[in-house]
Write a structure and sequence with these properties.
single chain; 9 helices; TIM Barrel; eight-stranded parallel barrel; about 15% strand
Amino acid sequence: MSTSIAGLYAVTPDLAETDALCRKVEAALVGGAAVVQYRNKTASAALRHEQASRLRALCKDHGVPLIVNDDLALALEIGADGVHLGKDDGAVADARTRLGSPRLLGVSCYDSLLRGDKAAALGADYIAFGSAYPSHVKPDAVRAGLEVFAAAKRRFSVPVVAIGGITLQNASTLIAAGVDAVAVISALFDAPDVREAARSFTALFQRPT
C-alpha cells in the first residue's frame, strides 16, 4: 500500500447508487488515481458506511489509500487509510491521536498558511488549499490564488494538495506552482470516460509543465 500523496487525488461525487459509484472509482483507479477520498454529503449514515466499506476493499485491491472525508468515526470503523478534516470537522490533534500511525491525516487550510502551520505542527500528513478555481461543487468556497500554493510549497515539508474547480485545462498551472497532488471531483467523475480522464490527469505529473 502506497501512502504517498502525489498525483491525482480522486474525490468521490455524491452518488446514491453504490455499484455505480464503485464502477466510477475503479475506472479512476485503473486510470492512475493515487489516492481516493470518499465524500458524500447527502447520504444517510447507513449508506455512507456501505459505500465507504465497498470502496475500502476496492482501493485495497489496487494498493491505493482510501481517505474518508470529515468523519473520523467512519474512517476508524471501516479501517480506512486516513481521514480528511475541514475546519468544522473536529480537532486535528484528537484525530492524530486516534488515527495512530501510519494512517493518514489531511487538513483543509483554504487560503490560510497560518492554518497550514497549525495543521503541520499537529501532525497532518498533507495539507490542502483551495478553492484554486471557481467550483461547481462549492460555489461559495474561499479562493486560494497561485501565490498561496507556491508559498505553501516553500513553507511546508508535508505534501500540498490543490482542490476546487480543477480541470485538465488548468491543472498544469497548479503543478507548475509546485503542488504535489490535485484533488478532483467533477472533471474526473463527470467525464464521459473516467479512466481516460484519470490517465490524462496522471500524465500531467509525468512530463515537464
